[in-house]
Amino acid sequence: MRYLETRKPRIEIIPMIDIMLFLLVFFVMFTLRMIPSSGHLTKLPTSSTAVVIPPPKLLVEIQADGNLMVENHLMSPAQLTAMLLTRDNSKTAITIAGNKYISLQQVMATIDAIKKGGGTEIGLAARTDQ
After folding, report:
1. For residue 93, which of 61, 53, 128, 62 has the smallest C-alpha distance?
2. Among 100, 93, 87, CA closest to 126
């Protein structure tokens, strides 16, 4: 008569742990994707008139040696121009970021490279004064 006995229902916890682990990994990956490409810019210049803009389509980071970091690739301003010429840049928002120790000449060289590549929507990354 064991077939007719009612069994006490059990809650299976292993599938629940799998789902929670999947959600944790998903949110960690989503959060990391919201951070700019490399995330190693820590000393942005400050400005009292800085405003929040939507996330850029393309982030160009100026390094101290004058090279540019674009989509985790190191390149020169000429290579940036060549890359932009191969893309449709009519509505691409490009943000330039660099630490507070880079020169104005490096910023202008980067802007020139972007304009030669056809970029028109250019923004400069900065922190607000606090």
Report:
1. 53
2. 100
Distances in Å between the alpha carbon of 100 and those of 6, 42, 44, 93, 103?
A: 72, 9, 5, 22, 8
Q: What is the pTM of this model?
A: 0.60
Instruction: Supply the DSSP symbol for 55.
Output: P
Which parts of the chain have pLDDT scores under 50? 38, 41-42
What lies within 8 Å, CB to CB, of 27 at 6+ separation is: none
CB-based burial, 20-59: b 16+ in 10 Å, e otherwise: eeeeeeeeeeeeeeeeebeeebeebbeeeeeeeeeebebb
Q: Residue length, the chain?
A: 130
Q: Which CA distances in Å does 130 have to 28, 44, 46, 127?
A: 29, 13, 9, 9
Q: Where are the alpha helices (DSSP H) in the chain?
A: 14-34, 77-85, 104-116
pLDDT attached to residue 41: 46
Given this model, what pLDDT does residue 90 score?
Answer: 59
45 is written with which tokens? 């210049």
Main-chain dihedrals φ then ψ at residue 6, nearest 5 degrees: -85, 135
3-state SS assignment for residue 4 = helix
